[in-house]
Write a structure and sequence with these properties.
438 residues; Methylamine Dehydrogenase, Chain H; Immunoglobulin-like; 2 domains; 1 helix; 35 strands; disordered N terminus
Length: 438
């Protein structure tokens, strides 16, 4: 309640007045490289979290009382297709065709073989409301009364592997480290702690360190490892965003979790950051939707796009080249708006099989690797994308001689991937299937 009063007061201090409800199309946006494709106008629901189906055609949203399915196969005309009264839901996540969502203190695990009819496979009861779900392979890290590591390798029989005796409002993961955000609400004089846990063995969670921040009301943490430019001084470093909206935003270098270093402090964009979603080399951050290039400035916020009427504090995801975003503001009432950033769209043509240098590429593997035959010497590079369009792996192989080649890949989840390969100046794309993996 206090936060709402403060926000309203700030509007009046800026010479603004409370505006009446307006649909999106009547607003005059200021934008850079981001466009609004479509939205749903609905004043009856406020989405708290969202996730996308494996093919990117459906978005699943949860709210305090409803589980909602949206069809975004045409992002210009998204539609609500189902609403289920499911009690108090706060978090949702998807791994392949497995959907996990929280119903207060229950973790519900569903099959999405039929994306319009989630079928419950198991329910695991924990202590306290489940506020956030972070998936790492077949492990779900849950923010509840405590922090739990739950294996859903067998989705019909989830197993609690370990717990850490501290709850948090959200968590994030990078490189075997789990970061817990514990922040006070309602009083900016309160403090914030970010706990750094070693989860390399999810059956034995260990606290490594904690970061203290002045002021409460921090809203989001997001972590990532810089793997973009081998010659960059920050290559291999792990960075942590801690976003606090109107109060402050921070970037910490947590490469050495025992000695974290503050590398940036300020306020992102226009009004500070509330939520962040990381995809490819870009960071999508809201209060209003801002896009930052982490490769260009890994220890800062280098703006490459924005849409400044995209609403307040919206959670978002990236799927199939678009950004579904919760868009709720007192003068914009939409549970879901869909944006597109021009710099991060996966090529749409996945059927280009013409390449004079490639004689063949295997398309089905029992373990992650890549096999192909070159008819001549060529410079080769490739990228693998998930079915949702997220970049899973990329590598520059340099100059290769003619003949067969076998390229080892890191552990990757079984499933369908889109391969984009470049030989000299010629491109090639096809679908790759890994039937085994982690």
């Amino acid at each position: 309640m206090n936060l709402i009063v403060v926000l309203i007061s700030l509007l009046y201090l800026n010479g603004d007045t409370m505006r009446e409800y307006q649909p999106f199309q009547t607003l005059q946006p200021e934008s850079l490289n981001v466009k609004l494709l479509g939205y749903i106008e609905d004043t009856t629901i406020s989405i708290l979290d969202l996730a996308a189906s494996e093919d990117g055609n459906y978005v699943y949203g949860v709210s305090e009382g409803n589980f909602v399915i949206y069809d975004i196969s045409d992002p210009r005309t998204p539609q609500e297709v189902k609403r289920i009264n499911s009690g108090l839901c706060y978090a949702v996540a998807i791994a392949d065709t497995i959907l996990l969502y929280s119903a207060w203190n229950h973790l519900v695990i569903c099959s999405l073989k039929d994306p319009l009819r989630p079928e419950t496979m198991a329910v695991e009861t924990l202590s306290g409301r489940i506020a956030d779900i972070t998936l790492v392979n077949s492990i779900a890290f849950l923010s509840s009364g405590q922090t739990f590591a739950v294996s859903f390798m067998n989705p019909y029989d989830p197993i609690i592997l370990d717990s850490f005796p501290l709850g948090s409002q959200m968590n994030c993961y990078s490189d075997s480290l789990l970061f817990l955000l514990k922040s006070g609400y309602g009083d900016p004089s309160e403090t914030t702690w970010v706990y750094i846990l070693d989860v390399s063995d999810p059956t034995d969670i260990k606290e490594l360190n904690r970061i203290w921040l002045p002021g409460g009301q921090m809203t989001c943490v997001a972590a990532w490892k810089d793997t973009f430019d081998f010659f960059s001084p920050t290559y291999g470093h792990i960075f942590l965003y801690v976003l606090g909206g109107i109060w402050a935003d921070y970037i910490w270098d947590v490469t050495d979790p025992l000695n974290p270093e503050l590398v940036w402090e300020g306020r992102t964009g226009f009004g500070g950051g509330y939520w962040a979603y990381l995809h490819s080399k870009f960071s999508y951050v809201s209060n209003i939707l801002e896009v930052y290039d982490r490769e260009r400035e890994p220890d800062g916020f280098y703006t490459v796009g924005y849409y400044r009427n995209s609403a307040d504090g919206g959670k978002m995801i990236w799927t199939k080249g678009v950004i579904p975003m919760r868009a709720v503001y007192w003068f914009i009432k939409s549970p879901l708006a869909i944006f597109q950033f021009s710099g991060d769209t996966v090529p749409s043509d996945t059927t280009d099989t013409t390449n004079h240098y490639l004689d063949w590429v295997r398309t089905v593997y029992d373990h992650p690797r890549l096999e192909f035959f070159l008819s001549g010497e060529a410079y080769v590079s490739f990228s693998l994308y998930t079915a949702l369009g997220a970049k899973a792996y990329q590598k520059d192989l340099g100059l290769l001689e003619s003949g067969p080649h076998i390229i080892g890949l890191p552990n990757m989840r079984a499933g369908v991937y889109i391969l984009f390969m470049k030989t000299n100046e010629e491109s090639f794309s096809t679908n790759i299937v890994f039937t085994g993996g982690f």
